[in-house]
Structure formats: C-alpha cells, structure tokens
Amino acid sequence: MHPTVDPSTTKYNESLAASTLPDRMRVINLPRVESITSDTKPSTWLSSLVEGQKPHVKEYVSRIRTQYEMNPDSPRLAGFVFDTFATGLKDVSNEFGIPWYVFSAAGAAFIGSMLHLTALHDEQGVDITEITNSEDELEIPSLANPIPAKLVPSTVFEKYSLTTFLVHARLLTEAKGILINTFLELESYAVNSLSHGKTPPVYPVGPIVKHSGVGSDPLSDESNNSRDIMGWLDDQPPWGSFKENQVKEIAFALERSGHRFLWSLRKPSQNGKMKSPSEYENFQSILPQGFLDRTAKIGKVIGWAPQVEILSHSASLRFGVPIATWPLYAEQRFNAFQKVIEVGLAFEIKIDYRKDFYGDTEIIVSSDDILKAIKNVMEQDSEIRKKVKEMSRISEKTLVAGGSSFSSLGRLIEDMVENMS
Question: What pTM value is reported for the model?
Fold first, then answer.
C-alpha cells in the first residue's frame, strides 16, 4: 500500500518489487488511495488508507481464487497475514472465509500489555488515561516486574489515540494467530504468559531484520554519502529528532566523553505534520560553535543513516551492540523498561522521557546524564555488554533448523494447513 504522505515508503515498496526475491514470493503494488493527502488528520489517515484499499485487495484475492478454480495445481490461498495496523482488512478475509493472522513488529511483552490494558478498560471499566497519568505501578502479566504506569505507551494518554489503541488490541483477539518479531530466548516470560487466557496462538518468528540486497533502504538512492559513511567506519576501531537545546546537550556529552561516534542528526518534522524528518543544510547552525572542528578526528555527524549496514559493520560488533535507551514516544518507554529492567540488555539515559508523537516537550536531558550513559555503554567488561553479545549469538541460532523461531514458523505452517482442511 502506498501512503501518499510519505514518498520514501513508495520508494521502498518499489525497490522490493524490483529486487531479487525467491520465485515463490511476489510483491503486489496496490493502487493509491488518492483521497489521502498531507492534510489528512494524523488520527485518521491510517484507517482511511486501509479502508480505501479493501476493494483493491478483494479484487486481487478474487483473481487468485479464480486461478485456483480453473487450475487446481496453482497455489491455494491458505490465509492472510496482516500487519498490526492493517487488521481492518480482516473484513476481506472474512468475506472469503479464509483465516487471518496478525504480524507484530513489537515484542511479546508489548502485545501482552495491549491485551491487559484493553481488558481493564472493557471488562472492569477502568479509565486507562487516569492510571497512566498517575505515579502508580501496574502489574502486567507479560512482565515479570511491576512497571510504572507512566511508562505505558503514550497512545493511551489521550482520548482520540486511546480509541485507536483499543480497536487494534481487540482485533488481536479475533485473529487465528499472532506472529511476533521476537524469539523465545529473549522474551520467554512474555511468550509463556501469552499461552494462557483468551490470546490466540502466538508464534515467535524473529529476529526479522532487513538485510542489504533485499529491498534497499527507502532513502538509499537519495543519499549519496552512504559510501562515505561506510568508508569512515572502515577507518574506525570497534565501537559501540530533538530541538536545538537538546541537540546541544547531546553534543556536549559526546565531546566530553572522548569516544568515537557517528551521529545521525536530522531536522524534526513540524508539529502536527505527517512528514519524515528532513536534512539540515548546515550542521553548524544547530551544533555548539566549534564542535565539528574539535571532534573531527573522532566523530562524524550525518543526516540519514543506512542503519542496518552500519550495525552490520565490523566496527559495531555485528548487531551485538549495547544500547543506551532514550524513548521518545509510542511504546518506546515500555520497550526501554523491558530492555533495562526486565532483561538487562540496555542502559538508561532517561527512561521516563515523554514526547508526543507529533509534538515535543520542554524537558531537557542534561549532558551530564547523557555522558554517564555513554560511559556505561562503552565500558568494555560490563555485564550488560557481555549479555548483549551472548544474546546476539543466540539470536543467530533461532532462525536455523532446530532453532526456536524456525520451529515456531514450522508450527505456524502446520496450523495453517490444518485450518485449510
């Protein structure tokens, strides 16, 4: 689906269609929903996109059905897998009498939180907006530790976004199963918690990460400095969108740390506008005076960054990179709590930092706090760094024969086949 508000998404979809994929995989580019523009309200554009695509999806599925009826040897439609935000297309699936599943890019613990908060709202009449603005702690079945209420997803803090949150959560319970981009060894507590109650079967199938060569990054063709970035990394030893005032605090911390850094710094979109971050024409205008000159030998400030390629580079310990969490919006605070407290795989910068998805906040995180996190994350013999490297090693094994996600995917296929019969 091509949301016209963000051309970079269209470029990514087109690159997928043009890339070399296995013969049994096809990328279908659906017609645009022309009624959606940059002026469409943020709270409604996604539902409008899905609704507008229903006739197009129905038409394509009808063709598949016709092909199968004419030639029984052609592929048979076994089920739909919808992204969490595209579950509105279930109407098409139900019309054809075909099972539908959900794929979640968020983790198992977050899925559990969605279901729990929705149950509080629907079954106990709890006003979630009051809970999440309190200093209370919540007991969520998918978390081993109580979580401060203010760390739950920001979408439940406001009435209009809470409605969307609840709709998506309720739809999860209607699915035939939920595929999650996680793996058992990372979220064993959360995955096991979802095997009880009203939750459909859960299939951990991750970690799913885009690799170069299959669907190039949406901005890669526009970014002529990608080769320069990777060249700069080649010269480095192994290492591990804010407003102006916050950018300066980050710069002070990086300079004082003395560590090598690659800083992807982009201009935030305007409040209330559904646009991707843009590039600064001149970094000098936003950074402290003389910062670029003083850090020229140890740092590089860039705009857009080829994230997967950078994390895959030998200078970043190949995906075993320890991180310092600084959540901004949506479910990021929840994710930060999980990584720092639940599984102990990250350091904290400001775990309760809050920023509206389309706005900003006046809270400024000091350079001292940022510097402390940098020093922690760069400590070579820290327990967290060791745990991250071990989890990275484990994650590689989950997707091969005998691995937990490999087996989970096999179970999904068996269940889909059984549902067809």
Answer: 0.85
